[in-house]
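Supplementary notes for students who missed Thursday's class. We covered one full example, reproduced here. Read the sequence, then the structure, then the short commentary at the end.
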Amino acid sequence: MIPGIEEHARQLHTAMLTELRAAIRTARVPRIELARAAGMSTVTMQRRLTGKGRPFLFGELVAICPLLGMSIVDLAVRAEVALEAVTP
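Structure (token representation):
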């Protein structure tokens, strides 16, 4: 495994969750609507958004990002930019 890749993946996951939560607040989309689109319960949605349990699956993010007015690529870019801003 490439040295540091696990740490980068952890940091990127955290940054993606932060950006996702910010997009949800901005779009004012109810969590129940997000959960429905992703095919999960609101409890599971809440766990995923707080980083508890397992991470979002790619398909789940693909399903909810359009409700927030963005694509999964937009989400990933926002997370990378945010990560670069805090990484020396």
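Commentary. The mean pLDDT is 92. Residues 20 and 82 are 12 Å apart (CA to CA). If anything here is unclear, bring it to office hours.
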